Amino acid sequence: MQINMFYDKENREKTIELGADSSVKDLLEKIKVNLVTVIVSRDNNILTEDEKLNDKDKIRLISVISGG
Amino acid sequence: MNCCNEKPIIELPAGEKLCKKHFTEYFENKVFRTITRFDLLGKEENLGVAISGGKDSLTLLTILNKLSKQNPKIKLTAILIDEGINNYRDKSLITAEEFCKKNNIKLNIYSFEKEFGMPLDNMLKVLDVKPCTICGIFRRYLLNKKSKELGFTKLATGHNLDDECQSIMMNQFKNNIQASARLGPMGGINNNNYNNKNDSMINKNNNKINETKNNLKNGNNKKINKNENKKIKLNEWFVQRIKPLYLCTEKEVTTYAFINKILDEFNECPNIVKSYRAQIRDMLNDLEAKFSGTKHAIVNSFLQILPDLKQRFKEEEINYCSKCNEPASKDKCNACKYVEKLEKAKIKVQSPFW
């Protein structure tokens, strides 16, 4: 499946290829982002790491790190 | 284990998964319990809230605003220090102003440029100093000074569990235990309420301080030897700081901010990327990912020894600055020392940006 991902820290969209039946956890492992450091949302809803993703999902990664 | 049939949005370190509604309740109750457990607020307060426009401080202000509406004797005023960091503070300042206007909260803004003569970006061009060092010195100086001028009984900051954890580890790695004595949900070592009129020790010292101030005002330098630093009790000149978000992780704060639509676009200080704190932060996050609950364990174990640390460093006295009368470890405070360096640098550098 293909996921359309926007990571606020990088400020750009990316298309990520994942296997069928992948979860949020699989996505984060693929892009090497620590779950502790981000909130993952789809259609403005926050997803936990075991949530399954669907083909063509638009996923937003929000960094939790403080500004300064 | 899910809290209910609604879709969970967050998993806590202990394994419980909470939905949006139950997470909001959990988070707000956690903050209220922190305030109660550590006795952070009295029945009446003229409370300053230090904000930056970022998620932590606006989350803090949101919850304290709710508290203030339930208890009108706790008055709220926001205070923001504009360091003058281009493409960072200018963005968050707009967010802060809009938030305070929308929630009818008075906001006082003080800038490095106005108070010290130039913004931080320019200071870093003429001084050979780590950005966080000078930024921290000037920001803390202004927060304390302006909090006193505004008559705050306490100053709340948006420091969260992650911040505290990082500070504990940084102090440990740098062999600076005395600095850790000033940590905790209530900052400082003596934890005296600045306006506690019932404290006879504070009244006695306040009388001495007033006498000294009058002498300085009257130019009566005979009574005060500039080279002889008057010793005053630590925290006599500090507005008590409190950290209501002390037990909340950064992820919990961000989740709450997201749900309540107070999360702005990603905005990280450009100076933090290379800092020591950032490396400690990354180390702790890596550990937390592998061993859930690590950060809570660090802070909870620290809280057990904190009373002993505060007791150990309790009697340390500080001076006040011979130039500005603010707290100082020696004859001059760090802020005045850096202002002098900036003045000298201004003379040396011929630049159109002064």
What does this structure look like?
The complex is a heterodimer of chains A (68) and B (354). Chain A is built from one helix and five strands, in the order ββαβββ. Chain A is mainly beta and 68 residues long. Chain A has a single domain, classed as Roll (Ubiquitin-like (UB roll)). In chain A, strand 1 (2-7) and strand 2 form a beta hairpin. Chain B is an alpha/beta fold and 354 residues long. Chain B has a single domain (8-348), classed as Rossmann fold (3-Layer(aba) Sandwich). Chain B is built from 13 helices and ten strands. Chain B has helices at 20-37, 55-70, 89-102, 112-116, 120-126, 131-149, 161-173, 177-180, 200-217, 250-259, 276-290, 294-312, 334-348; strands at residues 8-11, 17-19, 45-50, 74-82, 107-111, 154-156, 232-233, 240-242, 317-320, 327-328. In chain B, strand 4, helix 3 (89-102) and strand 5 (107-111) form a beta-alpha-beta unit. Chains A and B meet through strand 4 of A and strand 1, helix 10 and helix 11 of B.
Mean pLDDT of chain B: 82
| Largest sheet features of chain B | 5 strands, parallel
Order of helices and strands of chain A: EEHEEE
Please give the order of strands in the largest beta sheet of chain A. 2-1-5-3-4
Q: CATH topology of chain B, anyone?
A: Rossmann fold
Helix count from the secondary structure assignment of chain A: 1
Oligomer: heterodimer
Low-confidence stretches of chain B: 192-209, 215-235, 350-354
Distance between the termini of chain B: 60 Å
Please name the CATH architecture of chain B.
3-Layer(aba) Sandwich
Strand content of chain A is: 35-45%
CATH class membership of chain B: Alpha Beta
